[in-house]
Amino acid sequence: MADLPIAAIIRIAKANGAERVGSDAAEIFVKKAEAYLGELTKEATRLAAHAGRKTIKAEDVEMAAENQ
Fold this sequence. Notes:
Elements: H1 6-15, H2 23-50, H3 58-67
Helix pairs in contact: 1-2, 2-3
């Protein structure tokens, strides 16, 4: 089961120009978004640990996103 709500993904797609989003496409969007967020979190966690912190800060997320 996905952690991200499909309705939120559909709203994001529509806000970015999609007129309609099929349920199969929405499910793939959710899987891809969750995979991306997982990788981003791993990298941000690594950066926070490198800085001697357990807490991920905005700067860690920004740097992690630049590295991807």
